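Title: Prediction job returns without error message
Component: structure pipeline
Severity: low
Priority: P3
Assignee: unassigned

Description:
Job completed but the reporter wants confirmation the result is attached to the right record. Sequence as submitted:
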Amino acid sequence: MAVVAIYNSKGGVGKSTFAVNLAWESAQQGYRTLLWELDEQGDSSWILSPDGRSCPTNANQFMLGSGKLLQQIHSSKFSGLSLLDGDPNIRSTENFLVAFSRQQQLSKLFAELEKKFDVILLDCPPGFSEANRKVMLFTHLVVVPVIPSPLAERGLNKIREFMILHRGHHPPILPVFSMVDRRRKMHKLALDENQDWPVINMASEIEQMTYRKLPIGEFAPASSNGLAFSRLWRGIERKLLDMVVLRTKPKDDGTPTTEPS
């Protein structure tokens, strides 16, 4: 099972947009996917829930055991994609994660989730909290949406330092420029300095997601961002396959798929 965290220490960088679209891309490729929303805002589950409403969890119940958490997982409006919504009280979620880590139950929890899912995407809250640090111990890849600026690399280094604390190293980090407006001089400068970073543009499809309550691939797959998220997922998939934390999915006829090019 592969665990991918969508994280940035700052808010307002498009984490939920990334989480929704990458979770959808994963499910479309046949992976049993769970989007676990650790952020209290609940935007991801609000978009993906069948009735357009989130189903807030009660993180305090998680303290009674992993079974309580598993019971609160529910289906999205898309086949193969399940949801675990956030608790409106972020402190409850943080307390749960820290306590489970101290009791060495997080390992057991992720082992139980591995029986049900191929991919877990974590929509993480902003900040340098102890809870975020605990989650990173079980994360294979961290996707960091970054708004272009001359300080983008500096902010990324702070995230690396945070993840190294108490671990000695950090999981692979994939920075992705988010909300890019190429008319802005600072955005163009940041893109020129980091030309190998993937790019998600500021475009109408992003705003339409909340109106339509759909991932971009559902209503604008050929748009610039529809294609960009598809490419981004293929790159993530290749990385996870190389790390041997994700297995190729069989075709409908039973023959194995080849690794994406």
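Comment from assignee: result matches the submitted record. Residues 2-242 form a domain with the Rossmann fold fold (CATH 3.40.50.300).
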